[in-house]
Amino acid sequence: MGARNHVAATGDAMIGAWTVGEQTTEELLAGLPIPAPVIGAHPGVYSPSVDSALLCRAVLGELDRRRLDGRAETTVLELCAGSGIASICAALVGATVTAVDDTAEALAAIDGNATANGVAVTGLLTDVRALPASVTADVVIANPPYIPAPPTASAGHAWDAGDDGRDVLDAIIDALPARVRPGGGVLLVQSDVCGVDQTVHRLDLVGFSAAIVDEVPLAFGPVMASRAEWLEQHGFIAPGQRTERLVVTRAVRDAEV
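User: That's the sequence. What structure does it adopt?
Assistant: Structure tokens below.
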């Protein structure tokens, strides 16, 4: 993801500063209908960026929609939760939230950030492909890794997602029928570089009606820029392209989008 450009200082290399991304993130968070959560820096954990802020905006809008429909009691399940910022936004407006990540560092960050914001978020340490059958929710949200990665890519757990950028995204979509409760919904964030139409089609195949509900055009960040030539060679971007769209896909069961 162009937005996936840094983790807090850790054994992994620190990815360089990305001014336009930082500014866009700040603008999106400042525009939320609630004060932006306080999120600390945690070693080894993806720091909130543009895609994180888009998911925050989307989940707050979804919960407001459900309240207007008379569904005030809502459970939220966040997959690939990272710092937990979107989970915390949901909890701040009254949702019951479970946040899933596959690293202990992320779970510690989620717990610490939730405490700092005065809310309860249940953390669950597991891979999205190995969730217990009992883990379900009214609304499932995710900002998963989605950057296509060449075989020679250095470790980028928070952003690399296989040679087509869809390893985690497709695993999440395939699991949704068992995770989303009847009448529930889904919010997924990704770059258009890894195939928005593919996401909508795959959601349709597993029984969800989907549409793009939000997007932000953005210049490539350091990770995407460093792979631009490889992305061109493999047909992910047009020659000379150095921008992407970060999009939010909303999908629902048994209801109109």
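The chain has a mean pLDDT of 89.
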